[in-house]
Design goal:
mainly beta, 8 strands
Length: about 130
């Protein structure tokens, strides 16, 4: 779906986006493809929560309800949206479908994954770091 309504705005985390990640049944299709499902404005409270909460609460299809591992992040500049930070878990074994969260970042709002102690930061230049 189009993302023409997305804007960097003035708040730290102006938009949350639900993402879907698909992989072939035999685990041969990598990396994951990006599909935008919906978006809506966030607020300062949601931005603060994203800095202090884990990002591991993803949903899977019934057939693929397993434990997530392997932190995955990319900035989707190739899709024309340089402020989109995608955070998700790649399953230890094969999965056909999983959901993650992403936001349009301006360099201040960060997503912290407390489980694996990775901090991913996106900047308005399109750069991203993970430590």
């Amino acid at each position: 779906m189009a993302m023409s309504s997305l804007s960097s705005g003035s708040s730290d985390c102006p938009w949350w986006v639900t993402m879907a990640f698909y992989q072939s049944a035999d685990c041969s299709a990598a990396p994951y493809e990006l599909f935008i499902q919906e978006n809506h404005p966030s607020n300062a409270d949601e931005c603060t929560a994203s800095e202090n909460a884990t990002t591991g609460n993803f949903q899977t299809s019934v057939e693929c309800a397993r434990t997530w591992s392997s932190f995955f992040q990319k900035v989707a500049t190739e899709h024309g949206y340089p402020y989109l930070l995608v955070t998700a878990y790649k399953e230890e074994t094969c999965s056909e479908l999983m959901y993650g969260n992403a936001y349009v970042a301006d360099g201040r709002c960060q997503v912290i994954d407390a489980d694996s102690s990775h901090k991913a930061t996106a900047y308005s230049s399109g750069e991203a770091t993970m430590q």
